[in-house]
Amino acid sequence: MRWSVPGLIRTLAIWGAVLSVLAAPAAVTKVRAGINSGNFTAEEWKRLDAGQLVLRPATRTQGRLRLMGGSSWQVIDAAPQVVWRALLDTPRYHRMMPQVLEARVVRAQQNERTVFLRQGAAGLLEAKYYLRVNVHEQRRDITFTVDENMPHDVLRAAWGFYTVRPYGKGKTLLAYGVMADIGGGMVAGLMRHNVHDWMLRTPWMVKRFLEGSGRRLYR
């Protein structure tokens, strides 16, 4: 996949540095679970501490791809192992991810999965596609790309990651990043702004689920 590998490596390199554990946390003015305070603005720290979603939208052109997405962060009032188990609970993605109508694992082998997703507005505008998902259990990271060998409707490209890190006692910082090209045409053009608005809200939806109806599912 010519487009996905370099883009994914760059994305993970950037945000891997953001979320890396510091060898000497006392050397910085403010640390949350090994996260260097210099990577967030004062306003972003306030939002995180207040339980609000921090968003950094992004767009770029890569060859023939018109990519949009970015990164987002959310503090969740649940332990990291709870958030991690939830992220692996594919059939419940419709309760944790925007506009997901159906999700299921169609293949699993060691730390690799193929996941089918149906996303959009039921009966109006739906996208069906398959993701190749890599699960890194020990460091609690997940990376994904669209499986180009499987049907993927109008979605021309997509890749991204989830990272689960402790944030104080009993809490988690969930980081999420995604870049995607939802294709061309009039419908895609009309939907582009709305899609970009909700695609980064996944961490907030995970928070709402785990602090609400899903609170007792993964303990």
Structure, described:
- The protein has an 8-stranded antiparallel β-sheet, sandwiched between helices. Strands 1-2 form a two-stranded antiparallel sheet.
- It is 25% helix and 38% strand.
- 30% of the residues are buried.
- It has a single domain, classed as Alpha-D-Glucose-1,6-Bisphosphate, Chain A, domain 4 (2-Layer Sandwich).
- Residues 1-37 and 186-190 have low confidence and may be disordered.
- It has helices spanning 4-18, 42-49, 80-87, 185-199, 202-210; strands at 31-32, 35-36, 54-62, 65-76, 100-109, 112-121, 125-136, 141-146, 157-166, 172-181.
- A hairpin with a 5-residue loop joins strand 9 (157-166) and strand 10.
- It has 5 helices and 10 strands.
- With 219 residues, it is of the alpha+beta class.
- The termini are far apart.
CATH topology: Alpha-D-Glucose-1,6-Bisphosphate, Chain A, domain 4
What is the share of helical residues?
25-40%
* Helix-strand pattern: HEEHEEHEEEEEEHH
The tally of domains stands at: 1
Major sheet summary line: 8 strands, antiparallel
Q: State the total count of DSSP E strands.
A: 10
Q: Poorly predicted ranges (pLDDT <50, ≥5 residues)?
A: 1-37, 186-190
Radius of gyration: 17 Å
**Overall 3D form:** globular
Q: From the coordinates shown, what is the CATH architecture?
A: 2-Layer Sandwich
Structural class: alpha+beta
Q: What would the average pLDDT be, to the nearest integer?
A: 80
CATH evolutionary superfamily: START domain
CATH top level assignment: Alpha Beta
- Assess the beta-strand content as a share of residues: 35-45%
Strand order in the sheet with the most strands: 3-4-10-9-8-7-6-5
Distance from first to last alpha carbon: 38 Å
Count of helical segments?
A: 5
